[in-house]
Amino acid sequence: MSNPGTLDGVLAPILTPFTNTLTPHVPLFVALARHLMGQGLGLAPFGTTSEGNSLAVAEKVELLDALAKAGLDMGRIMPGTGCCALPDSVELSLRAVKLGCGGVLMLPPFYYKNPSEDGLFASFAEVIERVGDARLRVFLYHFPQQSQIPISHALIERLLAAYPATVVGIKDSSGDLANMESMCGAFPGFKVFAGTERLILPVMRAGGTGCISANANIHGPAMLELWRRWREPGAEALQTKLEGFRAIMEGLPLIAALKALTARRTGDYGWRRVRPPLVALPPEAEIELVERLEKAGIAI
To answer: What does the buried/exposed string (b/e) look like for 113-142 if buried means 16 or more CB atoms within 10 Å of the residue's CB?
Structure first.
């Protein structure tokens, strides 16, 4: 089992539900959080899957406050706090620390392309200094396909030298196994989370910490089983089994597809709503998706 108050294992980048006026639906959000954490998962709200960059700072604060008020284990929650605007990153990180979150997941500021290493270092350093709280734990968010701003090993080395007790890990959503293995070897004690369940086993074998994958919103228990049993002889079979769900989901607009499945699981079809520019999964695609999952014997 994952230990309460620690960030390891499998974290679900929890989906964000919306009302018919496209404001965050707080009760549904809390209900999904309870469901996922009841399965043994941690949470990583306000990243890509949560439509985090379509949410205002005040909306994120409201949702994070709601999780705390609901009595959930905030030590198992890693909210995304990296924004393009420095004050936004500081405000969200301060709130996360105040509420007892186990860490924050921090994208680099991603609007201006090709920033220098000095500029990126200064951005992370300013947030850390302005938060000014020894409880802050920063997990870097490496997703170059989406942000267009990679987080290099040289930058990690600088941050670890300057803030060894604060910069503690990374989510690597690049899909580059060699990069994850290299980080595990180069930075002992640095927590490396794979951004896809396809790499749970090799990343754990390299010394990694776990996985943060969108599909954990639906298929989290299977990921958690592999994470718990990765040292056992049957681990390769569990890893192969995980491929089935991911293969079915690939090629679909992932957030919309996960929301459609959540709507079916809960019976609340408001879950289908996404914020523009995203669009809901077309009914015919949803029917085909469900049929493929049923044929593969995968329950939602």
So the answer is: eebeeeebbebbbebbeebeeeebbbbbbb
Q: HSE-up of 135 (CA within 13 Å, CB side)?
A: 12
Which helix (H) or strand (E) segment holds residue 11: the answer is strand 9-12
Round to the nearest angstrom and report the end-to-end CA distance of the chain. Answer: 22
Q: Percent helix, strand, coil in the chain (nearest 5)?
A: 50, 10, 40
Record: fold of 9-235: TIM Barrel (3.20.20)
**CB 68: neighbour CB atoms within 10 A?**
15
Domain residues of the chain, as ranges? 9-235
Tell me which amino acid residue 113 is. K
Q: Mean pLDDT throughout 34-50?
A: 97
Paired tokens of 131: 């938060």
Residue with token string 């709601």: 66
**pTM here?**
0.95
Q: Please work out, in degrees rounded to the nearest 5, the angle formed at the alpha carbon of residue 105 by the alpha carbons of 102 and 110.
A: 165
Across residues 197-205, what is the average pLDDT?
97
pLDDT of residue 165: 97
pLDDT tens, 216-234? Answer: 999 999 999 999 999 999 9
Contacts of 247 (CB under 8 A, 6+ apart): none
Q: How many CB atoms lie within 10 A of CB 76?
A: 24
Q: Which amino acid would we find at residue 222?
A: A
